[in-house]
């Protein structure tokens, strides 16, 4: 059943946002875990597995977000993103490569003409602790260098202290700075403490202008759990029912195997609906998932697993 949701009013007072967000229906935590666990047991037919694997590959945001990242490492990752299995040209390319803002230009040049997007974690990733002016400058630089997507992190300290107006206004300001680029808003659900907070943060981000809501930076545990992803899918489903606008969801962190990916696809289909089974509305943030998807894909086509060093390490 669609939930009542706050109107997208950028001038709303903090008290108004608090009243509206705390007026959302509470999450039954036991029920949410039980339903997610039940959906995780669902299997797909063998005939559909090849399609699911290829779809999951097309949804991957191939990511490198380390202090030791170099232009060479980014170029190698981009080559893999565009041609995941050089021995099999039928293997689909991934959705995007996600890098720090200072490496966006390198990725854009490496991916030119491939159809793979470039995403950047601007806005003081992963903590989000920086003045708004710095976040906006980082965003504008990444977009100017060619980033098609910006992954921003919310100020969890402001959110947890109830300063919803600050969180909303920062998201809205970054969205404006994005210009033509899409905005993914990272909630860092591992720090939000409760499922109720996940629901509130999801609605707040959506109404501030997010094109996607994303679970995690991948730097905080727990990251992309199935119950949390389910609650976020419920939010975008209900928002669409109320407004006709579709928002994407991106679980990130801890999704490492083909089984993990398929569980997420089942969750999307059962909770949000088949319209979200598209890279334009669902992504998988991962650095190690792609290799397992490729290994399972090769097993389906040849009947045997490739050796552990068959695919390059991410």
From TrEMBL:
InterPro entries: Aldolase_TIM, DeoC, DeoC/FbaB/LacD_aldolase. Keywords: Lyase, Schiff base. It catalyses: 2-deoxy-D-ribose 5-phosphate = D-glyceraldehyde 3-phosphate + acetaldehyde. It is an enzyme of class 4 (lyase). Its EC number is 4.1.2.4. Pathway: Carbohydrate degradation; 2-deoxy-D-ribose 1-phosphate degradation; D-glyceraldehyde 3-phosphate and acetaldehyde from 2-deoxy-alpha-D-ribose 1-phosphate: step 2/2. GO terms for molecular function: deoxyribose-phosphate aldolase activity. Belongs to the DeoC/FbaB aldolase family. DeoC type 2 subfamily. This is Deoxyribose-phosphate aldolase. It comes from Nocardiopsis mangrovi.
